[in-house]
Amino acid sequence: MRTVFRFLKPYWLSVVLVIALLFVQANADLALPDYLSRIVNIGIQQNGIEADLPPVLRASTFEAMEKLMQSEGAGDEFVALQRVYTLVTPGSAEAKALAKAWPLAQTEPVMSLNTDDKAAMDAARLVFLEEYPKLVIVAQFSVSASQSLAGAPGATDQASAMPAAPSVQPDSTQSSAMSDFSALASMSPQAILAQIDALDPIAKSQLVVRGLQAEFAALGADIGALQMSYIVRIGSLMLLVTLVSVASAILVGYLGSRLAAGTARDMRSAVFTKVEDFSLAEFDSFSTASLITRSTNDVTQIQMMIMMGTRMLFYAPIIGVGGVIRALGKASGMWWIIALAVGVLLVIIGLVFAIVVPKFRIVQKLVDRLNLVVRENLSGMMVIRAFNQQDAEATRFDKTNRDLTGTLLYVTRVMVVLMPLMTIIMNVVSVSIIWVGSHEVAAGSIRVGDMMAFMQYSMQIFFAFIMMSFMFIMVPRASVSIDRITQVIDTKVSIRDPENPSQLPKPVRGQIEFRHVRFRYPGAQEDVLHDISFVARPGTTTAIIGTTGSGKSTMVSLIPRFYDVTEGQVLLDGVDVKTLSLAELRSYIGFVPQKSMLFTGSIAENIRYGKKGASDDEIVEALSISQIMSLVEESPEGLERQISQGGMNVSGGQRQRLSIARALVRRAPVYIFDDSFSALDYKTDREIRSALKTYAKDSTVFLVTQRVAPIRHAEQIIVLDDGSVVGIGTHEQLMSTCEVYRDIALSQLKEEELA
Question: How high does pLDDT run on average in the chain?
Answer without folding.
Answer: 83
